[in-house]
Amino acid sequence: VYIDEIDKLARTGTHLASVRDVSGEGVQQALLKMVEGAQVKLSKGDKRRGGEEAVLDTTNILFVVGGAFPGLEGIVDKRLSPQNSELGFLASSNEEAAPLSHDSVYSRFLPEDFQQFGIIPEFIGRFPVITFLEELDEAALMSILQEPKNALVKQYRQLFHYQGIDLTFTDAALRRIAKLAMDRGTGARGLRGIMESVLRKTMFELPSTQGIAQCIVDEQTVNDAAELIVSQILGVEGVDANPADAEKDSDAPEEGGDDGLYTAGHGH
């Protein structure tokens, strides 16, 4: 059994209110017996209408908990910071410790850090193995965009396919999307929002645009700032246009002219 967002159960008065539930400690106390092994009564139906109860033995059930624990990094970093360093004019700039990386900080945490965060010692003791996950890098985010069965790239390609349009993402565009998610600190959950902002205008205009055979999402550098652009390639007399031919016709009118390339820029 995996219990997510366990950090929301932080005890009152020990950490930021934004990451704390008002009854967090009470929930932790209630979970203690269940985690260590107990007979738990579960209702099969509406208990008020006389629903039957079933007894679940959790003795042989493995419980795994996880959470983001915002602020835990600062607790660990504060514990690792030099305690006897000189202050004021006596402090030497050369002695200033370089800030530790995210992975370096989390690799040094102790159970006491979770206790200071707001997790009660009894609950911490029920989980003998404590580890952390490294932040998703660019390669991992690109894989998430493309490889799963319901990957975002596949979803948007299917949406465009319903309009009879082939949607293509260049590697540069996918890398840019992954980098934006990393820079914003949103991780994999932020990928959909970035994809939506890039393709929103194009998806809105598609029903009223005739002759579009293919859309290509690429990265373009403008004034040393990278942008994601969507290029719409027009079909030629019912035949899909060749992207190579579209590049040759890039000087064609932006919209409403002869067969060519229609570009909608999306700055990020």
Question: How would you concisely characterize the structure shown here?
Answer:
The chain is an alpha/beta fold. The protein has helices spanning 24-36, 72-80, 102-106, 111-117, 121-125, 138-146, 152-161, 171-184, 191-205, 243-248; strands at 2-3, 39-43, 53-57, 64-65, 166-169, 212-222, 225-234, 261-267.
Description:
The protein is of the alpha/beta class. The chain has two domains: 2-125, no CATH class; 138-267, Orthogonal Bundle (Helicase, Ruva Protein, domain 3), CATH 1.10.8. Helices cover 35% and strands 17% of the residues. It contains ten helices and eight strands. It has helices at residues 24-36, 72-80, 102-106, 111-117, 121-125, 138-146, 152-161, 171-184, 191-205, 243-248; strands at residues 2-3, 39-43, 53-57, 64-65, 166-169, 212-222, 225-234, 261-267. Strands 5-6-7-8 form a four-stranded mixed β-sheet. A hairpin with a 2-residue loop joins strand 6 (212-222) and strand 7 (225-234). Helix 6 crosses helix 8 (171-184). The radius of gyration is 27 Å and the shape is flat.
